[in-house]
Design brief:
The chain is built from 12 helices and 4 strands. It is mainly α. The chain has 2 domains: 62 residues; 207 residues, Orthogonal Bundle (Tetracycline Repressor, domain 2), CATH 1.10.357. This is Transcriptional regulator, TetR family.
Length: 299
């Protein structure tokens, strides 16, 4: 009887919305509540009755869409996770890298000069990547759920979350592998034996992803950790101020990659790399805009 009254009231107040729109409204609200709640599996924030009220939909329609509250929570959590995207470099980081390239323009003819550029460029990029992800509410949610979902008591929900996490991780692996392959072209590097071809770059991407996950977990629990630095001469490059996170990531990257002796560095090759970087930068800016637009639509 209450469901009949609920639908009648909805019709009196305004146009009755479709079941699909009901679901979308509720999932959008629940996802936002999860993102705002922070990096925990705080399922209490997505109580169905609370979301029904916030979404301004009828209870009858909501319970037709999800007869089980557990199913609603599962869909809400999976939807929130699905909003996580890789965060490409922003304009500030791209300009910083371009300045670094130009500052090394007189040193590309020596192995030492090229190595100094590569190590510094990777160090700058890694630090920027980590800080972007830690500043993103969607990424903080992703990291928190990845660490805590094994403790979920609902086995069905746990399985759904595990499947979505695996799907997202694989999409990240694929994209990172492509980026690493492109970067090798820019800097004149190749994979160390026994790694070769796309499978080798994918293996590097997997290892880098695992390392980054550990770094993000540490960064969430200890925000000041990234700013703790020590001056060291590492990876055959001049001394610089290093964080532990940068050391960890570059150990993985430069343990897998090495200078390609087949690449002849001269003015033409330098100009080619600079032109390629300009095109790659445009792609990153486009990706960054799409990522921001995607997250904006979810708010």
């Amino acid at each position: 009887m209450s469901h009949i009254y609920d639908d009648t009231l909805c019709l009196m107040v305004g146009k009755r919305i479709s079941e699909q729109e009901t679901k979308q409204r509720m999932l959008d609200i629940a996802s936002e509540l999860l993102v705002v709640s922070g990096p925990t599996v705080g399922l209490d924030v997505i109580r169905m009755e609370k979301v029904i009220t916030a979404a301004e939909v009828s209870r009858a329609s909501a319970y037709r869409a999800w007869p089980s509250k557990a199913d609603f929570r599962s869909d809400a959590l999976v939807t929130a996770l699905g909003q996580v995207t890789m965060l490409p470099e922003g304009l500030a980081e791209i300009k910083q890298l371009k300045t670094l390239i130009e500052s090394h323009s007189n040193h590309w003819d020596t192995a030492e000069g090229r190595r100094s550029f590569v190590v510094n460029a990777l160090r700058i990029s890694v630090d920027a990547d980590i800080r972007r992800m830690l500043a993103s509410p969607h990424w903080r949610l992703f990291v928190g759920i990845s660490a805590n979902f094994p403790g979920l008591e609902d086995e069905h929900l746990k399985a759904d979350v595990a499947a979505e996490l695996a799907r997202i991780q694989q999409s990240f692996v694929t994209r990172r592998a492509r980026i690493y392959q492109q970067v090798c072209t820019l800097i004149g590097y190749r994979q160390r034996a026994p790694w070769v071809g796309p499978a080798g770059f994918r293996a590097l991407s997997e290892l880098a992803g695992l390392t980054m996950n550990g770094i993000l977990n540490r960064g969430l629990s200890d925000p000041g950790w990234l700013d703790q630095r020590i001056e060291l001469a590492l990876f055959d490059a001049p001394a610089a101020l290093w964080s532990q996170a940068e050391i960890a990531m570059l150990t993985v990257l430069l343990g897998h990659l090495e200078p390609d002796p087949a690449v002849e560095w001269n003015e033409a090759r330098y100009a080619e790399s600079l032109a390629w970087f300009e095109e790659f930068s445009k792609e990153l800016v486009r990706d960054s805009g799409e990522a921001q637009s995607h997250h904006g639509m979810m708010r």
